[in-house]
Amino acid sequence: EMSATDLFLLLTLFLIIGAMLLRKNRPMVTSFPEIKSAVRRASELNRSVYFIPGSRDIDNIQTVSALSMLKIVALYCAESDVKLIVPVSKSMVLERARSICETAYQEAGFPDRWSPSQVSYSTDDPLGFVAHVDGMISREKPAVCFMFGFFAGESLLLAESAYSVSEIRIAGTAVPSQLPFFVASCDATLIGEEFFASSATLSGDS
């Protein structure tokens, strides 16, 4: 007889396989226009955009890829005069994210629309970080939530919080066990190599 744990693992496997099959039926790097239209939607609603670059430090390749995605999001937010909020769980990511956003706002021609306080650090503890970000999302009610990078169990909590209040959710990760939660809760999900290919294209390394 199959236990509840075995059943959960089996369902997770089916969801992962289904996501992989769906990926084969769509072109690589499809979310660039989706990112821009999502930011425009936030502008129409006069609500903020949240960008969560995973829960790992700057030495994690998925964090590096997420920060490449952050630059294009920051550019679009600057152009559309949309408030961008970037909560992070590592101090090194904090400094890098601030530098990326400041540069993006300058390149967009709107340095006055940027404030370092838009990137904030709470705690290194994963559960504490999730609780903090969930509270921010619940209070702020952003129009759009971007979730890119390495996520462990916190993906479900973040995705569900975003789903409950935001209009649009776009995610990307190379962690197979977390993909079902993003696929189920988000409007678009970059899966594995799609995520890396997108970030490489944005950074000019493709």
Description:
With 206 residues, this protein is an alpha/beta fold. 57% of the residues lie in helices and 13% in strands. The protein is built from eight helices and six strands; from the N terminus they run H-H-E-H-E-H-E-H-E-H-E-H-E-H. The chain has helices at 4-24, 32-45, 61-80, 91-108, 126-140, 154-165, 179-185, 193-203, and strands at 49-52, 84-88, 119-121, 144-148, 168-173, 188-191. Strands 3-2-1-4-5-6 form a six-stranded parallel β-sheet, sandwiched between helices. The longest helix is centred in the first third of the chain and has 21 residues, at 4-24. 41% of the residues are buried. The model is unreliable at 23-31 (pLDDT under 50).
How much helicity do the residues have? Answer: 55-70%
* % residues in beta strands: 5-15%
Radius of gyration: 16 Å
Described by strand count, sense and barrel closure, the largest sheet is: 6 strands, parallel
Order of the strands making up the biggest sheet: 3-2-1-4-5-6
- The number of E-state strands comes to 6
List the helices and strands and how they pair.
Elements: H1 4-24, H2 32-45, E1 49-52, H3 61-80, E2 84-88, H4 91-108, E3 119-121, H5 126-140, E4 144-148, H6 154-165, E5 168-173, H7 179-185, E6 188-191, H8 193-203
Parallel strand pairs: 1-2, 1-4, 2-3, 4-5, 5-6
Helix pairs in contact: 2-3, 3-4, 3-8, 5-6
